[in-house]
Structures are given as structure tokens and as C-alpha cells.
UniProtKB/TrEMBL annotation:
It comes from the Bacteria. It is found in: Cell membrane. This is Protein translocase subunit SecD. Residues 228-287 form the Protein translocase subunit SecDF P1 domain. Residues 304-432 form the SecDF P1 head subdomain domain. HAMAP family: SecD_B (MF_01463_B). Forms a complex with SecF. Part of the essential Sec protein translocation apparatus which comprises SecA, SecYEG and auxiliary proteins SecDF-YajC and YidC. Keywords: Cell membrane, Membrane, Protein transport, Translocation, Transmembrane, Transmembrane helix, Transport. Pfam families: Sec_GG, SecD-TM1, SecD_1st, SecD_SecF_C, SecDF_P1_head. It comes from Corallincola platygyrae. Residues 434-596 form the Protein export membrane protein SecD/SecF C-terminal domain. Belongs to the SecD/SecF family. SecD subfamily. InterPro entries: Acrflvin-R, SecD, SecD-TM, SecD/SecF_arch_bac, SecD/SecF_CS, SecD_1st, SecD_SecF_C, SecD_SecF_C_bact. The chain crosses the membrane at residues 457-473, 485-504, 510-528, 549-571, 577-601.
């Protein structure tokens, strides 16, 4: 018999719609204003922390709905939005620097729904509000830093192999150049260096007394890839230290990184923490030469002049005792006189280096140098921002005893400066400098306005389609509208289950999907009308209408789906948000417009002796 589904098909459609409705309903419960407490640097969120937070909130008369330890993080649901900031400040002060307190919006759905994975859709920055940064990694500094390391390695190897009198220096644009006093040393040095550094290419100079080396394309690619990936890891650490819930840090293109911080409105603090390429270097003060002679232009080889904030000059050896890569922990505090300081902890290799150096240099001066890169306001030939390297002596202290893995640095002006320096050192130094090439701030009120505007667009688009289908196709139009409602429910359910982020362009994708979903039904219904005009019976018209229209619908939707997948793969930001909802909408509309409406039509008119269809 034509147009009769077996029972299992009706059950399948009903089951899919029921599950879709169940997971979509999680988006109707709304969100609670909350703060989120997470541990770092060996701390743990336990019962004592929960009691301390509870006591702190009660002392500050801040009302809350609940406190719960969820997967190692303490979530405090508040009753009012205006209590978020005071609660964050009070809890941060009470718990100290070993805990991060972030503002959050916690879904208010019941526990049984959470238990089956029923979570609401995440909202993008344009709907929730916050800060968007597009950062660019300075690849020239990556190459320069690698060449600086090569200079030190070349000197050490030549000294070890007793090749004396060689001058190794970095020449901008030419790589590393090694000059020799004797021509017979050139060939021997080339054999030694090429055997040790297989990724480098060596060339003899025209004068026969020098070697020049450059990095291979593969090595350059690896260096750049490593710089971007490590910078992403370090930026994530810094974002966590800022106390931001659900941040986004991801790569864009070859040398750019996108950072989105939902709920953050203080761009100055975010830029100060994220954009700084800050690290420390510990160097020995050159006590063999007079700094006054150096100021007059007679700077000895292997040394350089750096100044502190008071413009006092220091003659420092270029050789680095220890750099920030060995710092495992840093926290701010005060010394016995109440002056700000930063307490440093080193890894085992760094501790051994510091111990060895200080053992042999008791009574001598060691300087702490703070290094960061800042925008110069100029651009290079490629249009990229030029960064300037700033080196500043924080302090120069006499080594009074042998140091180990833990020590402190002083000479900082304010406790806030000590706090920020500790945060940067704790998160790690960026592998290469970065500059902010794009910055956007979206206020929470604008985010709410975007949600309202997007919702209205979907609603009015839906109403317009519903009215048209009812007026033009009568009862069959009602079938199409039912499928349209089911399609919207399934889109929301699938995006919720996948954990996809809904953005304003994503809402535009939903509006487009509404039109595309009903378009399939228009093709089917027009085909049914054509079959009726050709003299077929109502049952034959339904059967051939669905069968003959299927190939056209499938072709159109498959090509659009492929386009959406490509946009998801190579697009970023708004393009990707649009592509996600478009792809999900196409998949769900194919089900509702073909399988769903066919089930209703078969149930209402299929297999019955009728002479006319209400179409």
C-alpha cells in the first residue's frame, strides 16, 4: 500500500524529536550570576576552602544560592548581578594568590538534566560581551633569538675544541658570521660545526678567513611553528591568571593568535598582562672595567651598558647566568622593611646554575635585568608593527652567600608592580614578542541587545514563513510549519550537545536555515501539485512527489553543506560561527523536511481512499 510507514519509522521520528526537545529545553532555564574558584600552583579546592569562601561571603553580607565543588572548581551562585564584583574581590583577598577567582554565568538547569549532558549553548563574545584581541607574533625576533643561541653555542664548541682567536657575531640579515685569524682554522671549524649542527648551512667567506651560516627552510619553519604554539600555551596561562571563565585562545593563520575574554571590560589590564613579552635575566656586573670608560665609548667586548629607572648606568657581562625559562614559580610579597619583592623558585637545572655561579662569586655584584618588547609606533616594509626591546636593571645586589633554587629580587617601586611581574613570570615568558593588531570591546548591554535583535530576526522570519505556507498550501502548509518548529528545536539541541558556540552570525545562519528548510517542502508540494495536474491519484501524487523531489533537494543541500564545511575549516570568527549553524541546520532540515513531513503526511492521508488533497 502506498504512503504507509512501518511502525518503527514512526517510533524513530518520535524518538528523535523527543530527545531533541529534551536537550533543547536546557536553554530555557537561564543562567545564574556566579563566581568560580579554581586552584593553581599546587593548591587544592577542598572542604576548608569551601568553608572559608562561605564565611567570607557571610561576613560581607553577600547573599548566595549555593556553593558546590564541581570537578575541582568551586562554583558560587549569587542572587544578584551587582554582587559579582564585590564577591570576587572579597574571595580573592581571603584565599590569596594560590587561587584564581573568575566571574562566570552558570546554567540554572536542574541536576537530572546535567546528569544526561543537557547543557545550554555557549554564547559568543558578541552575545555575552567582553574583549577580543587579534595578536601577531614577531617572526623576525624568533629568527634573531635562534641566532643569538647559535652564537653562544658556536663559541662554546670552538673553545672546547681549542680553536682560538675566532670571533663569532650575529649580523642582521646575514645570519651568524665566524671570523678566524688563521686560514687553516676555517676548514677545521666548518667540519666541527657542520657535524654538530646538521640543520644549518655553512658558507666560506670570499676572504677565505670566515664562515657564514644560515638556518635551513625546515629549521625556520620549525622555529616559527614552535614560537606560535608555545605563545598560545603561555597566553592561556596568563588568561587563567587573569581569572576569566571560558576564555578562547586559538591560532589564526601562520603567525596570528585570537584571544577572547568573555565578561572582561578592563582592556588596559588585559593588554598589560597579555601583551607583555616579559622575562628576567641574571647577569654578572663587570668588575674588571670601569663603567665611566664604557660611557665614553670604550665598551669592552663581551659587555654592555644598561641603566636602571634612576638612569644609573651598569656595565654588565653579556653572558647570561640564568634566564626566565628556568623560573617555575613567582609570587609577590614584602621584605622585612615592608618593601615590595618577588620570591623566585627555579627548576633543578636553574638551581644548579645559580648555585654554581654564586658559589664562585661571593662578594661580587649580580644584576637582575627585566626585558620586554614594546610597540615602536612604526611598521616595516611588510606593514607589520616594529617592536622595540627594552632592557632595564631592576637591582644589582652583592652575592652574600651561595644561592639555590629559591631566592628573592627587590628594587620594585610598588606592590602592584611586584604582583604583575610575579604573574608574568609565573605564566612564563613569551617565546617571541607579540603585538595587538586588532582590539574590540563589546559591553554586556550591547551583547544583550544583540541577543534581542537576533531573536527577533528569527521570530519574524519564522512568522513570515509560517503565514505564507498556511496561506499558500493550506493543510500541507501546516505540516511544513510543524516540521519547521521541529527543525528549530533540533538545531538548538544538536548545538547544545556538541558544545558549539552561538554567535550573532550564527543566529543569522539560523534565519537562513528557516528559509532553506521550508524551501525543501515547497519543492515537494509543487511536485505533488504537478502530479495531480497530470491526472495521478492523490496517493500516487504524494508518492511520486516525494520520490522525484528528493534528488533535487539532496543535490542542493549537499553542495551547500560542503560549502559550510569549508567555511568551518578555513574560516574564523564570524564566518565560522555562521558556518556552524548553517551546517547543523542543513543536516536537521533534511531530516525534518523529508522524513518528518512524510511521516505526518502518511499518517494523515496515506493509504486512505481520498479523491482530493488539501494542497
Amino acid at each position: 500500500m502506498l504512503n504507509r510507514y512501518p511502525l518503527w519509522k514512526y517510533l524513530m521520528v518520535s524518538l528523535v524529536l523527543a530527545i531533541g526537545a529534551l536537550y533543547a529545553v536546557a536553554n530555557l532555564y537561564g543562567e545564574d550570576f556566579a563566581i568560580q574558584v579554581s586552584a593553581q600552583r599546587g593548591a587544592e579546592v577542598n572542604e576548608q576552602v569551601l568553608l572559608k569562601v562561605k564565611q567570607t561571603l557571610e561576613n560581607k553580607d553577600i547573599a548566595y544560592k549555593s556553593l558546590a565543588n564541581e570537578e575541582g572548581r568551586l562554583l558560587v551562585r549569587l542572587t544578584k548581578e551587582e554582587d559579582q564584583r564585590p564577591a570576587q574581590d572579597a574571595v580573592s583577598e581571603a584565599l590569596g594568590s594560590k587561587f584564581v577567582v573568575a566571574l562566570n554565568l552558570a546554567s540554572a538547569q536542574p541536576e537530572w538534566l546535567k546528569g544526561i549532558g543537557g547543557n545550554p549553548m555557549k554564547l559568543g563574545l558578541d552575545l555575552r560581551g567582553g574583549v577580543h584581541f587579534l595578536m601577531e607574533v614577531d617572526m623576525k625576533s624568533v629568527v634573531a633569538k635562534a641566532e643569538e643561541g647559535m652564537v653562544s653555542d658556536f663559541r662554546a664548541l670552538l673553545r672546547e675544541e681549542k680553536v682560538y682567536g675566532a670571533s663569532v657575531r650575529q649580523v642582521p640579515g646575514q645570519g651568524v658570521v665566524v671570523r678566524f685569524r688563521k686560514a687553516e682554522d676555517v676548514e677545521r671549524a666548518e667540519d666541527l660545526l657542520s657535524a654538530q649542527f646538521r640543520d644549518l648551512t655553512f658558507f666560506e667567506g670570499n676572504d677565505g678567513m670566515s664562515l657564514r651560516t644560515t638556518m635551513s627552510e625546515q629549521m625556520l619553519k620549525e622555529q616559527r611553528e614552535y614560537a606560535v604554539q608555545q605563545n598560545i600555551v603561555i597566553l592561556r596561562n596568563r588568561v587563567n591568571a587573569l581569572g576569566v571563565a571560558e576564555p578562547l585562545v586559538q591560532r589564526q593563520g601562520a603567525d596570528r593568535i585570537v584571544v577572547e575574554l568573555p565578561g572582561v571590560q578592563d582592556t588596559a589590564q588585559a593588554k598589560d598582562i597579555l601583551g607583555k613579552t616579559a622575562t628576567l635575566e641574571f647577569r654578572k656586573v663587570d668588575d674588571r672595567h670601569d663603567v665611566r670608560d664604557a660611557l665614553e665609548g670604550r665598551v669592552p667586548a663581551g659587555s654592555q651598558i644598561l641603566k636602571d629607572r634612576s638612569d644609573r648606568p651598569y656595565l654588565l657581562e653579556k653572558r647570561i647566568i640564568l634566564d626566565g625559562a628556568h623560573i617555575t614559580d613567582a609570587n609577590s610579597g614584602s621584605d622585612e622593611y615592608g618593601r615590595p619583592q618577588v620570591n623566585i623558585s627555579l627548576d633543578s637545572a636553574g638551581g644548579n646554575k645559580m648555585s654554581k655561579f654564586t658559589k664562585d662569586n661571593v662578594g661580587k655584584l649580580m644584576a637582575t635585568v627585566f626585558i620586554e618588547y614594546q610597540p615602536s609606533g612604526r611598521v616595516d616594509a611588510d606593514g607589520k608593527q616594529i617592536l622595540v626591546k627594552n632592557e632595564e636593571v631592576i637591582n644589582a645586589a652583592t652575592i652574600q652567600t651561595r644561592l639555590g633554587r629559591n631566592f628573592r629580587i627587590t628594587g620594585l617601586d610598588t606592590p602592584q608592580e611586584a604582583h604583575n611581574l610575579a604573574l608574568l613570570l609565573r605564566a612564563g615568558a613569551l617565546i617571541a614578542p607579540i603585538s595587538i593588531v586588532e582590539e574590540r570591546t563589546i559591553g554586556p548591554s550591547l551583547g544583550k541587545q544583540n541577543i534581542d535583535s537576533g531573536t527577533q530576526a528569527i521570530m519574524w522570519g519564522f512568522i513570515a514563513v509560517v503565514v505564507f505556507m498556511l496561506a499558500y498550501y493550506r493543510k500541507f502548509g501546516l505540516v511544513a510549519n510543524t516540521a519547521l518548529v521541529a527543525n528549530l528545536v533540533l538545531i538548538v539541541a544538536v548545538m547544545s550537545v556538541l558544545g558549539a558556540t552561538l554567535t550573532l552570525p550564527g543566529m543569522a545562519g539560523i534565519v537562513l536555515t528557516v528559509g532553506m528548510a521550508v524551501d525543501a517542502n515547497v519543492l515537494i508540494f509543487e511536485r505533488i501539485r504537478e502530479e495531480l495536474k497530470e491526472g495521478r491519484s492523490p496517493q500516487q501524487a504524494i508518492h511520486y512527489g516525494y520520490d522525484n523531489a528528493f534528488s533535487t533537494i539532496a543535490d542542493a543541500n549537499i553542495t551547500t553543506f560542503i560549502t559550510a564545511l569549508i567555511l568551518m575549516a578555513i574560516g574564523t570568527g564570524p564566518v565560522q560561527g555562521f558556518a556552524v549553524t548553517l551546517a547543523v541546520g542543513i543536516a536537521t532540515s533534511m531530516f525534518t523536511a523529508i522524513v518528518g513531513t512524510r511521516a505526518i503526511v502518511n499518517l494523515a492521508w496515506g493509504g486512505k481512499r481520498i479523491t482530493k488533497l488539501p494542497i
